[in-house]
Design goal:
Helix content: 25-40%
Oligomer: single chain
CATH architecture of one domain: 3-Layer(aba) Sandwich
Strand content: 15-25%
Number of helices: 11
CATH class of one domain: Alpha Beta
Radius of gyration: 21 Å
Shape: globular
CATH superfamily of one domain: P-loop containing nucleotide triphosphate hydrolases
Strand order of the largest sheet: 6-7-8-3-9-10-12-11
Length: 359
């Protein structure tokens, strides 16, 4: 299998729905003479990955790792500095405004805070009717019936039609946001922290709704979150980001059971694991994330890595194969990791094999 330069390994076999190659996004910040002039934020730096139709790819990392910017780049909500995004065979990053509008219905997003993404001046009916009418999916006379159908698909009913967002609970508002994303029958949905603003019981309900919709409608998800336990629950594969870089990518079960990159190990070590037979404290990752305007040379994690060596400080590691369907960017990992999980490249999990939380 090849690395990022020739197309990432670590993905399911077959033509991917989404191909990302060498994606870069730098934001230029204004600055005066006191700050040394304009600065550049290295939000996403040379990320390559594939997403296959029907799978759920989880993206995790600390705040400032570039997860949200990557999600917006996948949908071309922001323009890349360089690199390409290909969706269903179409060069998304090269499309003009008219062609981009034509495929927008197939690419949707659900944001973290539904109260920020839903207009407070529109009723639920108006929120859900807007995309249907704008893209001429349904006749205006029939739109209310279509809106009721959308609400029922996410577990709401006609009684919510005339309510405004502030009259909904957090879970109800997020269901409306999900229904809006489904209105145009998308193929790919980017979920940017869709449950982090909700309490645990409501999180379980929303995850159940998302899983049911994926199963019934054949959706593909990119699930962005800082919560590793949630990502593990919903994902087929997991990509780990640090300071704009993809540092590990692999099947969810293997990333959790046998993490390769020291950063992934540190993230997992910080998870509370109640084990009375083998009690252990939480692992504290020392130091702070360096400024994205001044990323360190070499491996960007070396300033916090407990096993960093001289090569880590001077040479940037490439994202390389480390066993079937495994990628990691670390100088200190052998090219083939024993026990990394021999076997075929994983396909999206069948519905019957997916864990479910009861709402």
């Amino acid at each position: 299998m090849s690395g990022p330069a020739g197309g990432p390994a670590g993905g399911p076999a077959g033509a991917p729905l989404l191909q990302v190659r060498n994606l870069v996004k730098h934001f230029r910040l204004p600055g005066g003479w006191l700050s040394g002039g304009a600065q550049v934020v290295h939000a996403v730096d040379d990320v390559s990955l594939d997403v296959r139709a029907g799978e759920v790819l989880g993206i995790v990392g600390e705040s400032g790792s570039g997860k949200t910017t990557l999600g917006r780049l996948l949908l071309r909500l922001v323009e890349p500095t360089s690199g390409t995004v290909t969706f269903d065979g179409l060069p998304l990053s090269a499309l003009g405004a008219r062609d981009l509008r034509r495929i927008r219905p197939r690419l949707q997003v659900v944001f973290q805070n539904p109260f920020a993404s839903l207009s407070p001046r529109l009723t639920v009916r108006q929120v859900l009717a807007e995309p249907l009418l704008a893209h001429r999916v349904v006749d205006r006379k029939l739109v209310t019936g279509q809106v009721v159908d959308l609400l029922e698909r996410v577990g709401l009913g006609p009684q919510h039609l005339t309510r405004y967002p502030h009259e909904l609970s957090g879970g109800q508002a997020q269901r409306v946001a999900i229904a809006r994303a489904l209105a145009l029958s998308p193929k790919l949905v980017v979920l940017d922290e869709p449950t982090s603003a909700l309490d645990v019981s409501v999180q379980a309900q929303i995850l159940g709704v998302l899983e049911d919709l994926r199963k019934r409608e054949g959706l593909t998800y990119v699930f962005i979150s800082h919560d590793l336990s949630v990502v593990h629950h919903v994902s087929d594969r997991i990509g780990v980001m640090y300071l704009g870089k993809l540092v590990e990518l692999g099947p969810a079960g293997q990333v959790f059971s046998e993490p390769l990159h020291p950063y992934t190990k540190a993230l997992l070590g910080a998870l509370p694991r109640p084990d009375f037979a083998h009690p252990q404290g939480l692992t504290v990752l020392e130091g702070t994330v360096p400024s994205p305007t001044r990323p360190p040379p070499g491996c960007r994690f070396h300033t916090r890595c407990p096993v960093a060596q001289e090569i880590c400080r001077v040479r940037e590691p490439a994202l390389r194969d480390h066993g079937p369907a495994r990628l990691a960017a670390c100088h200190l990992i052998s090219p083939q990791v024993p026990g990394s999980g021999p076997g075929p490249v994983p396909q999206p999990r069948p519905d019957s094999a997916r864990p479910r939380e009861k709402a």
